[in-house]
Batch of 3 targets.
Target 1
Amino acid sequence: MYICENNQAVKKNSILITGASGQLGSVLVEAIIGIYGSNSVIATDIKPIENSNCHTKLLDATDQEAIVQIILKHNVTEIYHLAAVLSANGEAHPTRTWDVNMVSWLNVLEASRRCQVQKVFFPSSIAVYGGQFERENTPQNSALNPATVYGMSKVSGEQWGQYYFSRYGLDVRSLRYPGIISYQSLPGGGTTDYAVDIYHKAVSQTSFNCYLKPDTKLPMIYVDDAVRATLELMHFPEASVKTRASYNIQGVSFTPEDVVASIQLWYPGFTASYQPDFRQAIADQWPSSLDDREARTDWHWKPKYTLKKISRKMIGNLKALKNASIKNEDYVTL
Ligand code: AKB
């Protein structure tokens, strides 16, 4: 039995994760294995999953019966549904993005209802916002008028989750993630991904061409905070989870020029140039920071990572990975 930071005891369970090799999935799977053990975790993705010591399976989540088969075979009690196309990639294939993001989520909800899965997690995003709203400290209950297909799918996804909770009593929980920053995977088609790529460029000592303007301020979160928020929300007593659409969570807000300045503490010669493209228009529709009072009140959310701490982690870990791969190459050539 695992005790969360909020001292809630966690029962042994069987957990299905879709989109397990994505940016959040690859880290969340390891954290969930740490809680429940590798035998209780089924990591699935549309492409083969490498280097995981739990059950792994290919899964196209647009196939509801395939989800049902896995639930029945492994007596699944909880699902973290992470499979999705992100904002920038989504604009290249709007109808496919809707299919992947919405059909798969409805399949997870429906399969959960049919098979009596207890608890389901839906990853929403700052992309639910758009149009006229307060950019700073954006309230959770602002009007949601997203301009991207990804954002539309997240708004509808939140509403479907709330519907399954009210109509069928399915314990659906959800977070609106800011841009997630992690070193474990490469950028994956999001608008906030410049803040991942920039660290790769810094560590490989190349300059960085940013597709956003230097003063574009967006909310971001380090992956450890994102994973901790997810697990704390999922393990909090059901009655305290008041919001069944999705909770705002704020990590730290910064601009591309703030990241460059932060990286310069380690690499003084590091520079960036700026060539805004279509992603600027997406970022301009999003909040600069989020009001996350409801998450703080209902289940005691509190971020730990500042920009400086994120830079230290990103640079340290990417350097370690680079050195390990150089050593590996040496070994191969010997
Ligand atoms: C994206 O940029 O598309 C994602 C997100 C903010 O949901 N990282």
Target 2
Amino acid sequence: MSETNVDPRNSVLVKAARGEEVPYTPVWFMRQAGRSLPEYRKVREGVGMLESCRRPDLVTEITMQPVRRHHVDAAIFFSDIVVPLAAVGVDLDIVAGVGPVVAQPIRTRADLDRLPELTPDAVPDITESVKLLTAELGGTPLIGFAGAPFTLASYLVEGGPSKNHENTKALMYGDPELWNDLCARLAQISGAFLRVQAEAGASAVQLFDSWVGNLPLADYLRFVQPHSRQALAAVEGLDVPKIHFGVGTGELLSAMGEAGADVVGVDFRVDLDAARERTGGQYALQGNLDPALLFAPWEPLEAKVDEIVAAGRRAKGHIFNLGHGVLPSTDPDVITRVVARVHEISAR
Ligand code: CP3
């Protein structure tokens, strides 16, 4: 809902993230900006994905599109997790229908030596985009984001998307020192990217560790958590709530919270009540409607939405979202209807 004359750092979404009382359950969707929207496909015509992420005019327009159309309670900064990697000089491209593809994978110490730290002067356009956006958004908060060290490492080590992450795990176990140095560098890059957005005016941040659900808890604790903690710590002191999300992370929810999150993102495989129990009720939760259910008939979909809102009210705080991103062929009108339903049923 549009919140006028409100400081976005005191908006419904930010309050829910902090576990404070809210007048209704706030809602946004991962990948709410993107191919499900005809107006997105139109402005992206003939413009490459990475280029569109570096043009403040396009970033602003694309980020605003779902806010205007769906009346969601937050905007998510239009960018990609590999943008900061490209900004420090990694030769990569985002291939439509595939994802990020890296020209020279990182597998040796010499490869790592070619990966510099991220300084804010490498991304002045990000600061500019955030400033344009916060001016246009008024009381609606902007969520900044970055990829977490593990997920970024997996793209860099594999050279592209991977199902089994075999090269990543081989490096982790084969040369733990190099793995840790790589992830420490990525935590710096990721943290700096979050900090640039928060300093420019983003009201919350989300750290995406999309593929970390491929690890057992023991490996997560040993090889990943310290680095994610480092990335999240980069915005400490800026008074922005930190959301931490991954796919298939049912076994890792507590550990991800302990990495320094205020809000734990839950995918659609874990019941929200179970997620609350697993995390000891310590965190606000975000989630977790299965994006595929947006293709189901309205009645059962609505019942599922209501069920998630009810479970969310038992949590310390709840931000309604999907359990992963909007699928490109989703009917945008269904998304608008879900937003309205969440607001209606959660009003208190
Ligand atoms: O609305 C939003 O959520 C903001 C935009 C956003 C994008 N990427 C835009 C994008 C966000 C938050 C991301 C993060 C991202 N990128 C993640 C983490 C979130 C997740 O989905 O788990 C990951 C793993 C990536 C890497 C990546 N980039 C993938 C897997 C893909 C999809 C490839 C494809 O074409 O299906 C991309 C490309 C991408 N990022 C698109 C968008 C809108 C599609 C490219 C296009 O529209 O041309």
Target 3
Amino acid sequence: MLLLGEGGVSIVSECIFCRIVAKEIPSEIVYEDDTVLAFKDINPQAPVHLLLIPKRHIPTLLGLTEADGELLAHIYAVIRQLAREHGLDEKGFRTVVNTGDDGGQTVYHLHFHLLGGRSLQWPPG
Ligand code: AMP
Ligand code: ZN
């Protein structure tokens, strides 16, 4: 079901991340503006594990279009800012977007994992 949230952002009431955007579910928010929200992952896989999401409900990376270029540039600008704020810019970090079942996506609201604070292995399992 589509509802209108603060500032006219569409909210899908069944979506846990839309409910975090709407502040119906608590989260540890580390950054917020009109279009983007970033919060701590509830099950961190590294000393720093943040999730960045567009406030607009986009289920997966496949839902992006060329018209989202500005949004994506902004998301990566926020990732750079948060990486610096969390001291990750010197030693590095990983940014991950899991897509679909084989990609390991469990929440179907587009999100960017920002992981850092330890040496991360490659390839993933
Ligand atoms: P993915 O598996 O790529 O879809 O990632 C979903 C991520 O969301 C996982 O790392 C979960 O730990 C995280 N997650 C699920 N529910 C919450 C929540 N309520 N607050 C913060 N992170 C969550
Ligand atoms: Zn959503």
